[in-house]
């Protein structure tokens, strides 16, 4: 693609990077076929190629983003299916990240949108604020149908619909500390503490630590680490995202001297972000080196366990497991074979979900900010999952579990919960009343 940035514009390293990305696109349009919003809406401007043109024009112009550009960029899930498909290796992820930051800095959204985005940024990444908010959400959930009636309050209705009916007690979450390896120590890792997951599904972190400890891995959760920054990063709130990331980079860097074989995430949306710290801070003299080191160490828990070896494992029941590959896992991190192979080695029958490349509509806070498109993608995904009649669905991202599980009776678990169970851990709580399709 030809670009027409001025020499002065190209002096800005962000523009220079986006210019390189744009020039790689050959307009072939292969990406349109796998883009969820193009599949749903059929509008070229809601395809990757259309958005690339819009972003190019916006950045070349250099002025404030227009409502039209914002509409189509906002509708992008950042699912990155287009990057998996693109034969020219166009780095759409960093281009749309840049576009979101430009929009955030130059476009004044309507008041209701500004408020909900601020509210999300101030609460969800902070467990101390998210927990009481979710308790309140459970109490006012009956208001959701009323909020659903007005376009401006629809995001609040969507948020209520995603909140769990009952919240686990705060003591259920793993606190900071060192969790010792069982037997001879084979490895030492830092685990991302996280934010929303430890509030609504603390059992996932516990399963991760049990599994890693059982496999001879010492796990450290530094007291100062927290949210990885992905939630606000996708809102284009660059300064807040960087602040979260810097805190985590410093926390994990402090552990390097004691030896660290990996920085582990058990939420693939967060893992994609941590793997990108090196890029994000590439021009920051204070953080470039540290961030690159952390990104080099970042691994999804399934990647790490696959490398370490699962050891003896036997599924207590040979359940039919539909593996739902989160976009951040398959497209963002290109991790797919490892979780599937681990589940098979643990004795489960693993089924691939048809149209597995299409997003389920979760996508960070997309299901709050774009509830209509998100619901259509959710229903489509549930339809494909139901069609293969699994006993249970396994996935590696809490966002997908929150998005899909309220829409079906089929239980959802995190992949590590099944691996933990098969290697001696407790039966996952979502499987207490599982109805076997394979029986
Ligand atoms: S597939 Fe790649 S090169 Fe082709 S239009 Fe899409 S982004 Fe451009
Ligand atoms: S990231 Fe996903 S929604 Fe956005 S343009 Fe690419 S395929 Fe489409």
What does this structure look like?
The structure is a single chain. The chain is an alpha/beta fold and about 450 residues long. The protein folds into 4 domains: about 100 residues, Alpha-helical ferredoxin (Fumarate Reductase Iron-sulfur Protein, Chain B, domain 2, Orthogonal Bundle), CATH 1.10.1060.10; about 50 residues, no CATH class; about 140 residues; about 120 residues, 3-Layer(aba) Sandwich (Rossmann fold). It is about 50% helix and about 10% strand. It contains 25 helices and 9 strands. Strand 8, helix 24 and strand 9 form a beta-alpha-beta unit. Helix 4 packs across helix 7 and helix 15 packs across helix 18. The longest helix is centred in the middle third of the chain and has 19 residues. The chain is globular, with a radius of gyration of 21 Å. The mean pLDDT is about 95. One iron/sulfur cluster binds next to helix 4 and helix 6.
How are the elements arranged and paired?
Layout lengths: L6 H4 L2 H12 L11 H6 L6 H14 L5 H8 L6 H5 L6 H15 L4 H13 L3 H14 L3 H4 L6 H9 L14 E3 L7 E5 L4 H5 L1 H13 L2 E5 L8 H4 L4 H19 L5 E4 L2 H8 L1 H4 L7 H10 E3 H8 L11 E5 L2 H6 L4 H9 L3 E4 L13 H4 L1 H17 L4 E4 L2 H7 L7 E3 H8 L17
Helix pairs in contact: 2-7, 4-7, 13-25, 15-18, 19-21
